[in-house]
Amino acid sequence: MFNIIDTAASGVSVHRKWLDAVSDNMANINNVASTTGNAFQERFVVAKELPTHNGTVVSQVLSGDKTGRMVYEPTHPLADAGGYVRYPDIDLSEQMGYLIMAQRGYQANIAAVERATSAYQAALNLGKNA
Fold it and tell me: Where is the Flagellar basal-body/hook protein C-terminal domain (predicted)?
C-alpha cells in the first residue's frame, strides 16, 4: 500500500513542476526583449520512470528557443533601428492544453494518495476493532 502512496506522490511532484513551468511560460508570453538580447525561453519538463517502477521523477527542464520571434513595433522603447523587438516564441493555446493536462494529472495523483491513505486508515481501524 505504501508503494501506491509513493508512486502517486512522485506523480504529484512531477505534475507540480509541470504546472510551474507552464505558469512561467504563460506569465512571460508578452515579455519583450531588444533584438540584441534573448527572448524568454519556454520551459519544458521532461519526466522519466524511476528504476524501481514506483513512480516518476523530473529528469530535466529544457529551455526553448532563445531567438523568439521578431515583431515590428517601432514605437516600443526597446525597438532597434528597424523598429523590431523580440518576443518569446510561445503559443498560448498550446500552453492552455498543457495546463489542463498537468492540472488533471496533479488532481488524479492527489486523489490516489487520498484514497490509498483512506484505505490504509480503514485497515488500521479493522485491526483496532478485532
Answer: 82-126
If we measure between CA atoms, which residue out of 117, 120, 30, 109 comes closest to residue 76?
Answer: 30
Boundaries of domain holding 67 = 2-129
Please state the domain count of the chain: 1
CA–CA gap between residue 24 and residue 10 (Å, rounded): 21
pLDDT reported for residue 130:
59
- List pLDDT tens digits, range 77-102: 999 999 999 999 999 999 999 999 99
Residue 125, burial from CB neighbour count under 10 angstroms (0-12, 13-18, 19+): exposed
Q: Are 114 and 6 in contact (CB under 8 A)?
A: no
Which three three-digit cell numbers place residue 3? 508503494
Task: State the distance between the two ends of the chain, measured CA to CA, in whole angstroms.
Answer: 21
